[in-house]
Design goal:
Elements: E1 2-7, H1 14-17, E2 21-28, E3 31-38, E4 41-47, H2 52-65, E5 70-79, E6 89-97, H3 102-107, E7 116-118, H4 121-131, E8 134-135, E9 138-147, H5 157-164, E10 168-170, H6 173-182, E11 187-195, H7 202-227
Parallel strand pairs: 1-4, 1-5, 5-11, 6-9, 9-10
Antiparallel strand pairs: 2-3, 3-4, 5-10, 6-7, 6-11, 8-9
């Protein structure tokens, strides 16, 4: 199986890219792509850029041009559930768009059966087995996540809670899950927390971005070690 990894930014995936063996770099549809191996696994990494369209393009590049058999997102996220602390990581079990009317997805082409995109159960199990309850002193949770075009600080937070009750929110995951669904391949995502309701806003995001990105990549590498066995 070849794993396609989507990193929204360089900082969210650069440490992992540095560990790839026989690494090659190219650009496809203006997306930077690294191809190589890790622990004997075939890997392609796409640096998507933020937001849903960029993430979708990167994911489709990995599927069609790099012929990846599964898609995995590695990056950071804003915590919605109050139990999450900065540095904790969410293994996303299912994801949805919090800024798209669900009926538009289900009642219009391509007639999705649900507003939620399910992560692959076997990949979720492998991630849970690899990570256990914590990594680097931070807790691991499995649960719902949502995606939208805007950074969520305080405004809109309660609406997201009322509509979806997710653990966290970001700007790319559901788009990658959507591409995986349309191409009938497995999907998984790791999202480490940079900001919370208690410590919200871009200032906290920037302060914690690199440390949380490092944790997300450690989660990714532990997962890949597990599936390489």
């Amino acid at each position: 199986m070849k794993y396609g990894i989507v990193g929204p930014s360089e900082g969210e995936i650069a440490a992992f890219v540095a560990k790839l063996e026989d690494k090659k770099e190219r650009r496809i549809s203006n997306i930077k792509v690294y191809e190589g191996s890790y622990l004997g696994l075939d890997i392609a990494v796409a640096i998507s850029g933020v937001c849903k369209v960029n993430a979708s393009i990167a994911a489709q590049v990995l599927v069609k041009d790099e012929r990846c058999d599964a898609l995995v997102v590695c990056g950071v996220s804003g915590g919605i559930d109050p139990m999450l602390k900065i540095g904790d990581t969410v293994i996303c079990s299912r994801v949805a768009y919090h800024d798209v009317v669900p009926s538009f997805l289900m009642n219009d082409p391509p007639y999705l059966g649900s507003a939620w995109f399910e992560s692959d159960a076997d990949l979720v199990t492998a991630a849970e087995e690899a990570l256990g309850d914590s990594i680097n002193g931070y807790k691991i949770y499995t649960g719902k996540a949502v995606t939208g075009e805007a950074f969520v600080a305080d405004e809109g937070r309660q609406e997201i809670i009322d509509g979806f009750d997710p653990l966290c929110t970001d700007m790319e995951t559901a788009a990658v899950a959507h591409v995986a669904y349309m191409n009938k391949i497995p999907f998984l995502a790791f999202r480490s927390i940079t900001d919370t309701a208690e410590k919200s806003g871009l200032e906290n995001f920037h302060e914690n971005y690199l440390a949380s990105s490092a944790t997300a990549q450690d989660c990714l590498m532990a997962f890949l070690e597990r599936v390489s066995e």
